[in-house]
Design goal:
Distance between the termini: 18 Å
CATH architecture of the largest domain: 3-Layer(aba) Sandwich
Number of helices: 11
Shape: globular
Number of domains: 2
Largest sheet: 5 strands, mixed
Number of strands: 13
Strand order of the largest sheet: 1-7-6-4-5
Strand content: 15-25%
CATH class of the largest domain: Alpha Beta
Radius of gyration: 19 Å
CATH topology of the largest domain: Peroxisomal Thiolase, Chain A, domain 1
């Protein structure tokens, strides 16, 4: 690469961490009217992980995931010069979890940015990291997706359609300059459509309300996630294949060129339908939802980290996500 040329970014290393507490479908059936069969038929989920005790936040789960990513990248933690933290479940409402993680990693003075794009948050963060590395603004960006859902879902009949889907976990990657002109983040595409915002949202507490939270809101369960499942499903199976084809066409690739497909893990049925629509063979598709549930911003980096450990993270890797907002995004990365 000649002086003055734009540098290409690359995923240098990936790591993940999930809590040790395994919660099966049968465990949930003891808390609310549901069953293993009902959950598996609708989502493909068999179990998920929850934090073991009170006081464990998204930044705590991100800590070991971040250390693993940096180590696998062959870097020192002191090499990290920017943190991007994607989450919809920050430790506290403010400050951002990126600042809390920076302190836990002993990185004083390092800038930290929280990304609030829910299930698409990791790919949105990857777009930012890619742009900053290519611009020469930062050299080693720690990009994290981390969620603690278990403390914010409703274990009742009213809340079960949402509660059975989500789990806690964290994934991280280190994004830096590529040392190979042929490898790296080839393209990222981002989209949003706020007309579907109320199909999947958390309406309370809300700064637009006076007061932000009332007993009436809590009685109505508005402080728990609200979802119109059929609408989300319909949008997801349309938009994920669309953005996948968009990023492949952008870099002149076909489906046959894809070595690994890492979709966001919202629902096994969605991912199977997306893979079928794209005609991607099942053995090239990463699934972890059956073990972890939907970990929102963490699903894709967890998938990347596990694929690395299995020796599958190589060649042309296709990423796609869809989630609340609505937001959706895709990327092609050559490892």
């Amino acid at each position: 690469m000649h002086e003055g040329e734009v540098k290409r970014s690359q995923i240098l290393g990936a790591g993940h961490y999930v809590p040790t507490k395994v919660v099966t479908n049968d465990d949930l059936a003891e808390l609310m009217p549901t069953s293993d069969e009902w959950i598996q038929q609708r989502s493909g989920i068999k179990e998920r992980r929850y934090i073991e005790e009170s006081g464990i936040g998204a930044s705590d789960l991100a800590l070991p995931a971040s250390k693993m990513a940096v180590e696998r990248a062959g870097r020192e933690m002191s090499d990290v010069d920017m943190i991007i933290f994607a989450t919809l479940s920050p430790d506290v409402n403010f400050p951002g979890s990126g600042c809390l993680l920076g302190d836990k990693l002993s990185l004083p003075g390092i800038p930290a940015l929280d990304v609030r794009n829910q299930c698409s948050g990791f790919i949105y963060g990857l777009s930012i990291a890619d742009a900053w590395v290519r611009a020469g603004a930062y050299k080693n960006i720690l990009l994290v997706g981390s969620e603690v859902h278990s403390t914010g879902i409703e274990f009742t009949e009213r809340g079960r359609d949402v509660s059975v889907l989500f789990g806690d976990g964290a994934g991280a990657v280190l994004v830096g300059e590529s040392d190979d002109d042929e490898k790296g983040v080839l393209t990222v595409k981002l989209h949003a459509d706020g007309s579907g915002a109320e199909d999947l949202w958390l309406p309370a507490p809300a700064s637009r309300e006076i007061p932000r939270l009332t007993e009436e809101m809590m009685a109505a369960g508005l402080h728990y996630p609200q979802m119109k499942g059929k609408s989300v499903f319909r949008w997801a199976v349309q938009k994920m294949p669309e953005v996948a084809m968009e990023v492949l066409q952008e870099v002149g690739m076909s489906i046959d060129d894809v070595d690994l497909f890492v979709p966001h893990q919202a629902n096994m049925r969605i991912n199977q339908m997306v893979a079928k629509a794209l005609k991607i063979p099942e053995d090239k598709v990463v699934h972890n939802i059956q073990r972890y549930g939907n970990t929102t911003a963490a699903t894709i980096p967890i998938g990347l980290s596990e694929s690395y450990a299995e020796g599958r993270l190589k060649g042309n890797v296709l990423l796609a996500a869809f989630g609340s907002g609505y937001t959706w995004a895709g990327a092609v990365v050559r490892i």
